[in-house]
């Protein structure tokens, strides 16, 4: 039996999405519509596929696999796609530079290994509660803030503009409100039982 969708949590997720849009709107003005779609569509697909893949793995495996094993399973299942994408990139634009390879390695270790295992472990801890699961999944939006900090510190990217800072602030407010609402609803349910 599927859980009921937490509408307040979805509303807070939309606040977070607004913050992300504000962070990116200035870049969007300098891009063509094709470039914008090529950047936006994969992000939208990934933002749904990542938590849905994790949920499906939890459902199908029903406690037989831990977070590490689920990460390995999802990695192996998606490997053919990544190999095809790599071949496409190799034949259309050539091999990546050394700098791109090092940056990809940092992303793979920090986001692909460490953050994914932590995320999967957190979802394991709350998998029976849709409110808490939604709150854990909303933490993905914090990745945007860490990516900006990493770009500025490690890659010498320019400091974000005031509009980007407003977007980051809205993301943080959305995260706080999401956690507050989830916690409040869990407490209300506990009082009624």
From TrEMBL:
Keywords: Membrane, Transmembrane, Transmembrane helix. The keyword Cell cycle does not apply. The keyword Membrane applies. The chain crosses the membrane at residues 7-25, 31-50, 71-90, 102-120, 141-159, 165-181. This is Multidrug resistance efflux transporter family protein. It comes from Priestia taiwanensis. The lineage of its organism: Bacteria, Bacillati, Bacillota, Bacilli, Bacillales.
């Amino acid at each position: 039996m599927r859980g009921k969708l937490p509408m307040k949590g979805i509303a807070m997720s939309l606040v977070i999405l607004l913050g992300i849009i504000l962070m990116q709107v200035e870049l969007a003005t300098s891009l063509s519509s094709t470039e914008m779609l090529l950047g936006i569509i994969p992000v939208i697909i990934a933002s749904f596929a990542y938590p849905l893949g994790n949920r499906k793995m939890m459902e199908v495996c029903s406690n037989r696999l831990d977070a590490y094993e689920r990460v390995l399973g999802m990695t192996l299942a998606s490997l053919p796609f990544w190999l095809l994408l790599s071949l496409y990139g190799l034949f259309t634009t050539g091999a990546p530079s050394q700098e791109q390879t090092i940056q990809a390695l940092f992303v793979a270790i920090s986001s692909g290994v460490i953050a994914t295992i932590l995320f999967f472990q957190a979802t394991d801890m709350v998998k029976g509660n849709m409110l808490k699961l939604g709150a854990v999944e909303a933490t993905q939006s914090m990745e945007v803030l860490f990516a900006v900090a990493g770009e500025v510190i490690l890659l010498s990217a320019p400091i974000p503009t005031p509009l980007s800072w407003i977007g980051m602030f809205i993301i943080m407010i959305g995260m706080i409100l999401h956690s507050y609402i989830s916690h409040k609803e869990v407490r209300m349910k506990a009082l009624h039982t």
